[in-house]
Recover the amino acids of this structure.
């Protein structure tokens, strides 16, 4: 089974993308597996609405463990299973909380083990330098690292917010040579291209 | 943040665990960790490629160390060069036809046919001609069945096992025995079809005595063109056999005393006059003689140990009395 990791800075909308993208791919109920930074596993069932209210938060670092779901994706005439993994957000600089640092370390391991990387950047904050979700040093390093992987795409998220078109232009400029899809995880726009990209890589 | 870690320290960071430790302990930023992981992983990728080449060198060395066989060695070099050029041509979008590499090995037993086939499999894997590079060794009984339809099935099973590697058919001429009605013909037909079907994925080598193989090709004229590579494995000269003997003994950590070398050579020389020489098995005869000598040495040492201590030198040395004179048990003289 191929593994697809969703990564990016904190508060760019990784978890919301996971839930809404899974729903877009036809998942009715979520079997979410959680792996905390000590390595212990638990799993829980959700319907999309409760999943959003339980797993998504405006405050940074809501996601402290690796959350993953397995999805059947139609490929050719049959279906293929893919594990989509949501991760803890990256930050520029060093986080004061050791728990968050552990979560980031765990995310890096996940990224190394994944076949496909979806790198989310907040397009609405791309021009801004001060927000936690603004594009930063770590984004450039992700792009560098992802060159070693076969399937890598950047998702410019929050295209529904003001300032996002300028942000999108900036992302295109900074990360030229990479696949970049404009999306809105909230309104489920741009998902078709992402789906094609994922299917192409499994 | 990277200035917290000077270059010397960076060089010492050679595993992922250390990078993660530094990240968790708040010594480096996520971006730093990613940079290091990128360096480490891209280094690993190139390193693995190099070690692949090293292994190929080892196999080529093994081939080079085989005594004689200059034709085979040249052929391998040709094929290697050819496939390299094919790759370059593909890069330039020039026509690059895959080569037909089915072979016929002619020669007496013990002239290195099987050994060479196994090495070829490994080499072809490394230069990207075969996916797996294993060698499946079969003979008539593995291919030919007992009733109608059985043969095609048995042959297909062996072909399936061999896909991605080499199917080595020993004493292949025996498939031509028994005339039109024999099931051997069916096995040949199935083989030929598989060679077409899996031409990018399978190499078939037919092996056997020279005279018998020549006869076999005569009665199956269609085969000759499908096996463009024919190699004759000549009998080894006594000198070559002596070189092989010394190497085999060395590999097993034994040593011939000068007198026993002379005796060994004498026996090989006289075996040439044996009317069953071509059945004695050349290098195989040497191996069997050495193994027998090692057993006889052990027997001698055990009985000697009742009288005196066994020294290291005793354990190493093969004396003339250890060398077997009677070759009849190795397939000659009866």
């Amino acid at each position: 089974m191929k593994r697809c990791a969703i990564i990016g800075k904190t508060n760019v909308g990784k978890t919301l993308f996971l839930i809404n993208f899974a729903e877009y791919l036809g998942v009715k109920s979520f079997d979410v597996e959680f792996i905390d930074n000590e390595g212990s596993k638990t799993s829980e069932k959700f319907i999309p609405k409760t999943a959003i209210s339980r797993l998504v938060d405006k405050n940074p670092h809501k996601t402290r463990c690796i959350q993953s779901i397995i999805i059947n994706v139609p490929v050719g005439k049959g279906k293929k299973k893919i594990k989509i993994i949501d991760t803890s957000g990256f930050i520029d600089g060093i986080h004061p909380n050791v728990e968050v640092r552990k979560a980031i370390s765990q995310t890096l391991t996940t990224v190394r083990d994944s076949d496909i990387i979806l790198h989310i950047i907040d397009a609405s904050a791309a021009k801004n330098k001060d927000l936690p979700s603004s594009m930063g040093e770590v984004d450039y390093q992700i792009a560098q690292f992802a060159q070693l992987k076969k399937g890598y795409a950047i998702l410019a998220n929050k295209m529904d917010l003001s300032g996002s078109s300028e942000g999108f232009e900036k992302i295109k400029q900074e990360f030229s040579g990479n696949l970049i899809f404009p999306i809105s995880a909230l309104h489920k726009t741009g998902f078709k291209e992402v789906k094609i990209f994922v299917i192409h890589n499994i | 943040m990277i200035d917290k870690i000077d270059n010397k320290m960076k060089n010492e960071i050679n595993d992922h665990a250390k990078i993660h430790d530094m990240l968790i302990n708040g010594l480096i930023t996520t971006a730093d960790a990613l940079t290091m992981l990128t360096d480490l992983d891209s280094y690993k990728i190139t390193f693995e490629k190099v070690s692949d080449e090293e292994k190929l060198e080892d196999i080529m060395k093994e081939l080079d160390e085989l005594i004689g066989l200059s034709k085979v060695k040249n052929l391998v070099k040709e094929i290697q060069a050819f496939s390299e050029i094919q790759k370059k041509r593909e890069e330039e979008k020039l026509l690059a036809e895959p080569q037909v590499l089915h072979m016929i090995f002619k020669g007496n037993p013990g002239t290195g046919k099987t050994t060479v086939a196994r090495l070829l499999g490994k080499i072809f894997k490394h230069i990207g001609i075969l996916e797996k590079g294993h060698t499946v060794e079969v003979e008539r009984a593995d291919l030919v069945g007992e009733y109608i339809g059985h043969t095609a099935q048995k042959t297909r099973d062996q072909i399936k096992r061999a896909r991605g590697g080499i199917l080595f058919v020993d004493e292949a001429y025996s498939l031509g025995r028994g005339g039109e009605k024999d099931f051997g013909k069916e096995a040949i037909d199935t083989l030929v079809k598989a060679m077409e079907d899996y031409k990018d994925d399978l190499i078939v080598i037919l092996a056997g005595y020279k005279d018998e193989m020549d006869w076999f090709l005569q009665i199956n004229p269609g085969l000759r063109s499908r096996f463009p590579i024919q190699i004759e494995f000549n009998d080894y000269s006594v000198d070559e056999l002596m070189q092989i003997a010394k190497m085999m003994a060395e590999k097993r950590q034994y040593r011939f005393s000068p007198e026993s070398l002379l005796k060994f050579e004498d026996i090989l020389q006289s075996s040439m006059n044996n009317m069953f020489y071509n059945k004695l098995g050349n290098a195989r005869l040497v191996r069997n003689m050495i193994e027998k000598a090692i057993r006889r040495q052990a027997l001698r040492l055990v009985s000697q140990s009742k009288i005196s201590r066994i020294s290291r030198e005793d354990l190493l040395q093969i004396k003339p009395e250890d060398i077997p004179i009677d070759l009849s048990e190795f397939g000659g003289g009866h």
In short: The beta strands of chain A are 2-8, 30-35, 41-46, 66-75, 78-86, 116-122, 151-157, 179-182. Chain A has a mean pLDDT of 84.
